[in-house]
Write a structure and sequence with these properties.
With about 425 residues, the chain is of the alpha/beta class. It is built from 13 helices and 16 strands. The structure holds fe (ii) ion. Fe (ii) ion (FE2) binds next to loops.
């Protein structure tokens, strides 16, 4: 199987597999992932919670997650997609309070006729969880798989045409010739690993077969990726049996897989299937994907949520929200810069050079997550890697800079073959 990798997302992807009637109306599907929602009552952004989040290296914009999701909801009420597919890590750490608050937000959309489909990520059913009502940790109620089903009963866990007995996977029939397969890719709840069990594989194949027999086309979604997007993270972020799952999907006519988990806006495609990781909604620039799905072709466009426009519309006086493109960028950049600096200053003796490399790699990290590599000077990338060789940060940066082919420093724009 030949594989094409793009380190970056081309913002508008158009895949046509054969000509379709121009009169055919597409199904409009928005895909969003890794919202890591908290809920303000249970999570107050202060004290230990704020300190830990600001320094944990993930760059999650937890302080404003509610406002940012409200901005997304407002955009959806305007865009009016038929479906919103949410591919897991809905909440921050499995707290029931966060799930309940999030489900309330979804109701606003479903009341306007938008069908929401969710599936669990590794942060949704955790076995134990904490809330931070005053910025300090308190043990909190988490959710069981049955409770997850119940909380999201209006959002996929009722009305589907088949529910897997061995996981939270299901199939939803749009009744427009397209079936949406929502896969629960968690090996077991509370672990980061992803894999489909033998029993779920059998169920999946049966469902894909009946989809094909009905003349319908499948779109498949899960939390973990099918294919490798970054070799450094394959163990925990790619489905252990992704190649097998990919083979089954394509055998029955599927060519699009949607996922999250990595938080980077990124796609990989083989000759048979495209695997799109949506940018983590919890990190700047808070992306979502808009898909126009015809039965025989589809387009995908990645969009960033307009937080400042929303803040202005609601009359917010919070300058961080009103100037969000600066605030959001800087928060994510500072987080990356702090990580870069810690390593680089310890191995590069020249302070001027260490600063230059720290700034460069922080910008590179922001670009990687956002899927935008313009305005980056890559001319000294090779020197930077050589000077920091042997460190974890350097090998991570190298995976961003290198395409998987030929160990060549990526040239921008990177072209898929
Ligand atoms: Fe995840």
């Amino acid at each position: 199987m030949k594989k094409f990798v793009s380190l970056l997302l081309v913002f508008i992807m158009i895949f046509s597999f054969c000509a379709c009637s121009p009169k055919e109306k597409p199904i409009k599907i928005v895909t969003v992932t890794d919202t890591h929602f908290t809920g303000k009552e249970a999570f107050s952004y202060e004290g230990t919670f704020a300190l830990a989040n600001d320094s944990n290296g993930t760059g999650k914009q937890v302080k404003y997650v509610e406002e940012i999701f409200d901005a997304f909801v407002s955009e959806m009420l305007y865009e009016k997609p038929e479906y919103i597919v949410i591919t897991g890590d809905i909440v921050f750490n499995g707290a029931k309070a966060s799930h309940l608050a999030f489900a309330e937000k979804l109701k606003v959309l479903s009341e306007e006729g938008i069908k929401i489909l969710v599936l669990p990520g590794n942060h949704d059913i955790t076995g134990s969880s904490f809330v931070f009502p005053n910025g300090e940790a308190e043990v909190a109620e988490s959710v069981t798989p049955d409770e997850f089903r119940e909380i999201y009963s209006e959002f996929g866990y009722s009305g589907g045409i088949s529910y897997d007995e061995n996981s939270l996977s299901y199939v939803y029939d749009t009744e427009k010739g397209v079936r949406i397969f929502m896969l629960d890719t968690n090996v077991f709840y509370g672990a980061t690993l992803g894999n489909l069990s033998e029993a779920t594989l059998i169920w999946l194949e049966e469902q894909l077969s009946s989809c094909k027999e009905a003349g319908d086309v499948p779109i498949v979604a899960g939390h973990h990726s099918l294919l490798s997007h970054n070799p450094r993270f394959d163990l925990n972020y790619k489905l252990g049996n992704g190649d097998k799952v990919s083979e089954i999907i394509t055998e029955y006519g599927g060519n699009l897989y949607l996922c999250g988990h990595l938080h980077t806006q990124h796609f990989v495609h083989t000759e048979e299937i495209t695997d799109i990781v949506g940018g983590g909604f919890c990190v700047y620039p808070h992306r979502y994907g808009v898909i126009d799905f015809f039965k025989e072709s589809w387009t995908y466009e990645s969009k960033a949520t307009s937080v400042s426009a929303y803040a202005e519309n609601i009359g917010s006086t919070d300058e961080n929200l009103l100037q969000y493109s600066d605030f959001g960028y800087n928060f994510f950049y500072d987080n990356a810069y702090a990580q870069a600096k810690e390593t680089i200053y310890s191995v590069v003796n020249d302070p001027e050079l260490a600063e230059k490399y720290s700034v460069f790699s922080a910008k590179l990290n922001v670009a990687y997550f956002g899927g935008v590599f313009s305005d980056l000077d890559l001319s000294f990338a090779e020197d930077f890697i050589a000077a920091t060789e042997g460190t974890g940060w350097s090998s991570y940066m190298k995976t961003i800079l290198l395409d998987t082919k030929d160990n060549v420093y990526c040239q921008w724009p990177l072209e898929t073959e």
